[in-house]
Write a structure and sequence with these properties.
Layout lengths: L1 H24 L6 H9 L13 H9 L12 H12 L17 E5 L9 H5 L5 E2 L7 E2 L19 E5 L20
Antiparallel strand pairs: 1-4, 2-3
Helix pairs in contact: 2-3
Length: 182
């Protein structure tokens, strides 16, 4: 019995050492530039930039495969921050990818919703909850305003409501280091 325990312990030590070596040998490190670019992007995951989400767009920018002006939700402020980070020229938002709009959230009309679940399937951040053939609702704190829920709705019961500017939602238009004392 003791020999069986020793064999098992030895096997565990050998496998543990092999896994430890493999984790060091095959370590995959993220690109810190991609992480910085991704942190600037609005995380709407809307695809308006031509990429399936903010992280793939950030990766393409870092590799030089995409321009910094393809994100309508990030708008002029996002383009300016990306230009500062990357040392590039500030460009106007690409009209091909859309136009800058005020930040908004989806609102579902309870009287019109038929519970088809198409909006739930389209939402990239799982901000819509509900069950089949039941009224759905939007969790405002999760909604990124990407508008991907609008096209699949067969009864047009979803509208976008602009978010009122409050202390919590307001952002500095310019970074503090760019504001000059009068």
């Amino acid at each position: 019995m003791i020999s069986a325990i020793l064999v098992m312990a030895l096997g565990a030590i050998v496998l543990g050492a092999a896994l430890g070596y493999a984790s060091i040998k095959f370590k995959v490190e993220g690109d810190p530039l991609v992480d910085k670019i991704d942190a600037i992007l609005p995380q709407t995951q809307c695809g308006q930039c031509g990429f399936p989400g903010c992280k793939p767009y950030a990766t393409a920018i870092a590799k030089g495969e995409a321009e910094i002006n393809q994100c309508p939700p990030g708008g002029e402020e996002g383009i300016r921050k990306l230009a500062d980070l990357l040392g590039r020229e500030v460009k106007p938002l690409s009209a091909e990818h859309g136009q800058e709009k005020p930040r908004s959230v989806a609102l579902i009309d309870e009287n019109t919703c038929i519970g088809c679940t198409l909006c739930i399937q389209a939402c990239p951040v799982d901000a819509i909850v509900g069950a089949a053939k039941q009224m759905h609702t939007v969790v405002d704190s999760l909604c990124t305003g990407c508008e991907l829920c609008l096209p699949p709705c067969p009864v047009d019961c979803i509208s976008m409501t602009p978010i009122a500017e409050t202390v919590e939602t307001w952002k500095w238009k310019y970074p503090l280091h760019q504001i000059k004392a009068a």
